[in-house]
Amino acid sequence: MPDRRTFLKLAAGGGLLAAAPLLFRGGASAIAAEGAFENPLAIPSLDEGRLQDGIRSFRLQVRAGSRRFLEDLETPTLGIDADYLGPVLRVRRGEHLRIAVHNGLKENTTLHWHGLRLPGPMDGGPHQVIRPGSTWTPEFQVRQPAATCWFHSHQLHRTGEQVYRGIAGLFYIDDEWSDALKLPATYGVDDFPLVLQDRSFDRDGSFRYADNMHTRMAGMLGNTLLINGTLSPVLDVKRQRVRLRLLNGSNARIYNLAFRDGRSFHQVASDGGLLPVPVKRRSLLLAPAERAEIVVALKPGEDPMLIHRPVELGGGGMMMMRMTAGADDGPYPMLRLRAAPDAEPPAEPLPSKLRAIQRLSADDARGIRRFRLDTRMMVGSTINGRFMDMARIDQEVRLGDVEVWEFDNRSPMPHPMHVHGVQFQILSRNGGASGAGEAGWKDTVLVRSRETVRVIARFEDAADGDNPFMFHCHNLEHEDGGMMGQFTVTA
Ligand SMILES: [Cu+2]
């Protein structure tokens, strides 16, 4: 008898052959728009490790568990020190870290520190496999400004499924600068993490992760939204100003965040930390792996709804194939905020300046590397025409150099491109300027169909051929399908 996984694969594959849908959107993978939004939002536990002899050390265990997401049904899950997802790890700039990661699963995994600047062997990519029952203990110094980063499985060909089942968590960096700013910063009181994920469930409550040609082309889109693992959540707050640290922890889905009543909010940070100034906006596009921190003003007693507002990302042109990563689904509600009738007003105005960022200039760059993104129908997505090969180094960067990387997306769908080991700045989109919300440090950039994006970075962390860094699409099914390459950074 085929096991469940094989059965699902066969079932889904058979459906594909019969129907051969060319328009990978909507239908069974559109998010349902209903829900009471009465479930209290789960807040992950905060783990500050142990500070001893100048080293902050953590002990983490990746393990299996189960969680009741849906009424009356248990869902088998994976997590880090938890049944589903992991704690928020909190560290300070300048600290030396030691993180013991024990693999309590029956399969190989890895834990990648997404957005962290560190040496190649500590990165937690596909070369730093943790075998079942063993422990991997990376050590590194935090040498970057305050930011909301994260960690997740990066197991070759298995990242999509392992992350889907729950191997992900947040990683906060604080520093003197972020301490001094008058932004909401009390965890779980006026400063909240929001991990946005779409999932699908089978009738027995188990996650439905479909590994088939459809998902390899379009990415895995779920039809149910979870935030921090909570279905149809409400967040009760006792403050009139709250900071939301958003992570798009979805495998493939893109969110265009807004409030149903159209209110504005301020974006204060992007992937790699604080923006130069707060950016007032009414919507915010967040692709898989991207982070943004926003500050929202609430009046006592009101309950605004955070929603996804459908957006056209362009694209198409290949045999009518258009893959939208769910961006044009909806609108659908995501999170209800509910301010207490006696919610406290903020003591100070929102700061008008956050953190100066020295812009890198193309004049400082040694050169430009070009990455062409293509999708071949029923085959998969490639970078410069190639699929990932663990034995091949695709790019060699000289330690300390500034380089421009250009992503030229010729495929009919958007690709959120991520580079390990650096934080970069966005130079241009199709030759023009990018938005004020992208004026800070980034490690993941959404490249729309038919768009060319240039980013610039200084490569200051070393990675040799045994432990190279990755560059890849963060649509995890694209990544698992081979839309990834490797680079070294050596003197
Ligand atoms: Cu992609």
* Bound ions, cofactors and other small molecules, one mention each: copper (II) ion
Tell the overall outline.
globular
The end-to-end span amounts to: 55 Å
| Helix percentage range | under 10%
The gyration radius over C-alpha positions equals: 21 Å
Key features of this structure:
single chain; 491 residues; mainly beta; seven-stranded mixed beta sheet; six-stranded mixed beta sheet; 5 helices; 36 strands; 42% strand; disordered N terminus; binds copper (II) ion
What does this structure look like?
- The protein has five helices and 36 strands.
- Helices cover 8% and strands 42% of the residues.
- The model is unreliable at 1-25 (pLDDT under 50).
- The strands form seven sheets. It has a seven-stranded mixed sheet with strand order 16-15-14-18-23-20-21, with no helix packed on it. It has a six-stranded mixed sheet with strand order 2-17-26-24-19-22, with no helix packed on it.
- It is mainly beta.
- The termini are far apart.
- Copper (II) ion is lined by residues 381, 415, 473, 475, 478, 483.
- The site of copper (II) ion has 6 residues, from loops.
